[in-house]
Amino acid sequence: MSFLEALKLAAASLRGHKLRSFLTLLGIIFGVATVIVVVSVIEGFNAYVDEKIANIGTNAFSVQKFSIEDFSSVEGLNKAKRRNKDVRIEDLRALKELGGFVKDAGAKSGTIGDIKFGDETLLNVQLNAATPNIAEIENIEAATGRFFFNVEEDTRRFVCFIGSEVAEKLFPTADPLGKTIKIDGRSFKVVGVGKELGSAFGQTRDMYASIPLSTFLSIYGLRRSISISVTSVSPAAYEDAIEEVRTLMRVRRKLEPSEKDNFGIITPSAINELRDNIFGTIQVAAIGVTSISLVVGGIVIMNIMLVTVTERRKEIGIRKSIGARHSDIVKQFLMESTSLALVGGAIGVLIAYSIAKLIAIGLSIPTALPFLWVTIALVVSSSVGLVSGVYPAWKAANLDPIEALRSD
């Protein structure tokens, strides 16, 4: 029996028992759909994080009050709060003068504020503060206008760079450039509007206003910790730049060699490691749960195939009496069980793809469906069908044709 002929017989059998075939596949469908949805969300989040890291720049890292390790537990964070000192503007000046493997350094901070123009007021808007070179370090692009100039930072000018959503809500029919808005009751001139970033995880990324860091600190107080973004002179010098910065910060804080850093250096690799630790566990757990569903689905397929062998004893007897070989019968029933599971896997992938799209549209959560995982899902589901069909196929092939023809 050729492969094509076995496939045709399997398709005919599935069409002849549509409802039973569908009910048999529910375990496979549920298992595959579950893992594909989880993988889609995780892969979408990974792509989002990679995009944000790429926007920061390949040679960039940040110096902050806390490290990623400090957030590993509540106890660790509490210890860090007692131990770690604020990162100050004086640290920025020292890093900018460092030279060596450090190319540039910029700083940023932020809070929540209210923005008003005319009769329109936006409450609890993200208020960012940054030095002008942050636009270059973190690839901040302007749709219209510009980011801050150095002279505006040096003289503490009241100028602002607003997000596209803020511009749309405050100036639906007018050009925002040159207009004066009020941020927490203080007048700021709009010099630029950011390029639209869209939303992620249900939260908009375009509802913000940025002002010069010096202006921000003069208004909201100098006694607050800032974040410093640092770039190296080249990718090859990246690790050396990190060590230079770490050494400078330790010297400035007069730390002994045996003492732990009382500041944090955040790198893209550290962010990726944290991401993998969090979502790797979730992905493994999802695959574990899915495996149970696939095992149950495989048992159901085996049971149905055994019933099928019993129902088709006479057909098997006729086929063997007219010359069908042992291998032909085995191939026929293995093809049926494998096709059954493969169809279930394909349906599960389609359902998962639809659910992932609905999640992306309804909740603004980024999703992605890698072709590799689709292939894995189909291969695993068909493998489950193949394994589940081995015993029924063996049983069918070993039926005595005379006894099979005598059956009702």
Strand order of the largest sheet: 2-3-10-5-7-6
The overall strand count is 12
Low-confidence sequence ranges: none
> What's the pLDDT, averaged over the residues?
82
In this structure, how is the largest beta sheet organized? 6 strands, mixed, barrel
Q: Ends: how far apart?
A: 26 Å
User: In DSSP terms, counting alpha (H) and pi (I) runs of 4 or more, how many helices?
Assistant: 14
Overall, the morphology is elongated
Written as H for each helix and E for each strand, in order along the chain, the element string is HHEHHEEHEHEHEEEEEHEHEHHHHH
Strand content: 15-25%
SS-based class: alpha+beta
Work out the count of structural domains. Answer: 2
CA radius of gyration is 32 Å
Q: What does this molecule look like?
A:
The structure is a single chain. With 408 residues, this protein is an alpha+beta fold. It folds into 2 domains: 3-51 and 273-406, no CATH class; 85-262, no CATH class. Helices cover 57% and strands 17% of the residues. It contains 14 helices and 12 strands. It has helices at residues 3-16, 18-56, 74-83, 89-96, 134-137, 150-154, 164-170, 213-220, 238-252, 268-311, 313-321, 326-363, 371-397, 401-406, and strands at 60-64, 102-117, 120-130, 142-145, 159-162, 180-183, 186-194, 199-200, 203-204, 208-212, 227-232, 264-266. Strands 2-3-10-5-7-6 form a 6-stranded mixed β-barrel, surrounded by 4 helices. A two-stranded antiparallel sheet has the order 8-9. Helix 2 runs antiparallel to helix 10. The longest helix is centred in the last third of the chain and has 44 residues, at 268-311. The protein is elongated. The two termini are 26 Å apart. The mean pLDDT is 82.
